[in-house]
Amino acid sequence: MTVRQTGARWITLATVITLSALALPGQALGSGDYAAVAPPSTPVTVTVQTVNGSGCPAGTASVTMLPDNTGFRITYSDFLARAGGTVPATDFRKNCQVNLLVHIPQGFTFAVARADYWGKLRLAAGASALERSNYYYQGSSDDNYVDHSIAGPTAGTWHTVDVTDDAELVYAACGAVRSLNINTELRVDPGTATATTSYISLRASEGDVYTVVQFQWKQC
User: Fold this and answer.
1) CA dist list (Å): 44 to 47, 144, 165, 201, 220
2) The model's pTM
């Protein structure tokens, strides 16, 4: 992990991590199975089947396909974890699982190649935060995840990046319809700063805050 901080307010994190959770039974297709291609030119749509979790109460999360078919954007309006001060003890951890179907043209398949998270935070000295994510298809294991830790004191914008190496990409089975799950968790540990409220959020109301999941496309 590399951390770069400019001035007193802005923090950026960039982590390169192999996402190994997207395997389907009998469908562990590596980069050598197909030749990577440009995204389909015909429309690709996503249908949200369920949205569950303490970080995304009903009506507070939405998913939109990117116009160039390279992936989709998730926007949250009430995704906030906080701890310390007088906030309720249960607020230290919030999570959200988005379950969706990606409707793609015949002859194509995709893998999740990258995910970018942008959010806001304020952490007192002695406090820390965690952003955790995992990605898995229906019928596959959901016990692999990616963690990003941030230590206080800091305040401003955070950005984490999960990237899958080409050789580790796992593609959805050609011709099969599988649900894709995106599971995100935010945590705050007040540490020694129990008298001060610290937080980490993915709330769109705070500015350019959202999640972008990007695909790698191949032809079947």
Assistant:
1) 10, 27, 24, 29, 16
2) 0.83
